[in-house]
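Collaborator request log, item 7. Partner lab (contact: R.S.) asked for a structural prediction of Chaperone protein DnaJ to inform their binding assays.
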Amino acid sequence: PGAEEKYKEIQEAYDTLGDEQKRAAYDQYGPAGANGGFGDGSGFSGFDSSGFGGFEDIFSSFFGGGASRNPNAPRQGDDLQYRVNLQFEEAVFGTEKEVHYNREASCHTCNGSGAKPGTSPVTCSKCHGSGVINMDTQTPLGMMRRQVTCDVCHGTGQEIKEPCPTCHGTGHEKQSHKVSVKIPAGVETGQQIRLAGQGEAGF
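Returned to partner:
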C-alpha cells in the first residue's frame, strides 16, 4: 500500500488502542471486530480479511502477535507416531502388540519443577512474575508500547536459580515408555489407531 493508505491503517490502529470497546472487540474478533465488521455471532457475515493485511500487521506489532497474550498457558504435548508391521494372519484376525518408544515426560528428579531438589523456583526478577515485559517500539505516531514474553523466564513467571542436574532446568526429560496396542481384525495398510494420553507430556 501507498504511504497514505499505510498512515490510515496506523491511525485506525491507534484509534482502536485508545478505545477500550474497540480493543476488546479486536481481542475477540480480530480487525473485523474493531471495525464493526462482525455479524450476529454466527460468523463474519461475508467479511473479507484480505484487505486488512496491513492492519493485522500493525496489531501484531503492537500486541506481539497471539503468542504473547497468555504466556503462562500450558503447552499441549506433541503427538507421536509409531509404525507397526503385521503378519498377514495378524492383519486378518487381529492381534495385540507391545510398542516401546521414548517420549518427553516430567523429570523424575525434580517432578517437573526444573529446580534442583531441595530448592524452589523464585519469582522472576525481570517480569516480577507476570511472564511478560513491556517493549517500546518507535512508530510514525510516536513511541508505542507492547507486551512480549519475558526472555528470562520464558513466560513462566518463575526463575530457576539452581537448575535440576537431570533435566538442566527444563522440567522434562526423555523417558522410555511401552504400551500394549490392540490391533482389530481386518485392519488395512496405512490405517491409524489413536491412543489418548500416550503422547508426550504437556508443560
